[in-house]
Write a structure and sequence with these properties.
Helices cover about 15% and strands about 40% of the residues. By secondary structure, the chain is of the alpha+beta class. Strands 1-2-7-6 form a 4-stranded antiparallel β-sheet. The two termini are about 20 Å apart.
Length: about 140
C-alpha cells in the first residue's frame, strides 16, 4: 500500500455511551484475510442495498456464528451475500472489494477466549434488544459512493 493509498483509508469506530467500542467500519484498506473450514449458522441476514462489490455482487448484513474446531465464533457484519447461504462451509471474510480497496463493517465482540454469548439461545435472545436493532440499522445504512 502506498502512502497515497493510506491517506485515502478511513476507519470509523463506533462507541457506546460508556466509551466501549461496539462497531468498526473500514474503507480504502488493503485486503488480506484468512478463511478456513467452519460450520455456519446464520440467525438473520438482510440485503445492504448501498454496497455492491467491485464486480457488482450484492452484500448483506448478517448475524450468526461459526463452529471452528469445536468453538463458537459469533459475527455481525456486512459480507458478500453468498456467505450467508445455508451451504456455506467456510469462515469466509467480511472484506468487500470496492474501487478504493476493501471495506469491512462489523460489530466488535470482545473476548476471543470466550464466546460473546454463553449459548446460541442467548445470541437469539439478544436479537430482541435495542442494541441489536441499533447495530443492525447502522450496518444496513452503509453506502459506498
Amino acid at each position: 500500500m502506498t502512502e497515497k493509498d493510506k491517506a485515502g483509508s478511513v476507519v470509523a469506530v463506533v462507541a457506546d455511551s460508556s466509551g466501549s467500542e461496539v462497531a468498526r467500519v473500514l474503507s480504502g484498506m488493503y485486503g488480506d484475510a484468512a478463511a478456513g473450514p467452519a460450520k455456519r449458522t446464520v440467525l438473520e441476514h438482510t440485503p445492504v442495498p448501498g454496497i455492491t462489490d467491485k464486480a457488482g455482487k450484492t452484500t448483506e448484513f448478517g448475524f450468526g456464528y461459526d463452529v471452528i474446531a469445536g468453538s463458537l465464533h459469533y459475527f455481525m457484519d456486512v459480507r458478500l451475500a453468498h456467505e450467508f447461504l445455508p451451504s456455506q462451509d467456510n469462515s469466509g471474510t467480511n472484506q468487500v472489494l470496492l474501487p478504493n480497496g476493501v471495506t469491512s463493517a462489523f460489530v466488535v465482540f470482545d473476548d476471543e477466549k470466550k464466546p460473546a454469548f454463553a449459548t446460541p439461545d442467548a445470541a437469539k435472545a439478544w436479537m430482541a434488544t435495542t442494541k441489536f436493532r441499533q447495530l443492525k440499522a447502522l450496518l444496513l445504512s452503509l453506502a459506498y459512493k
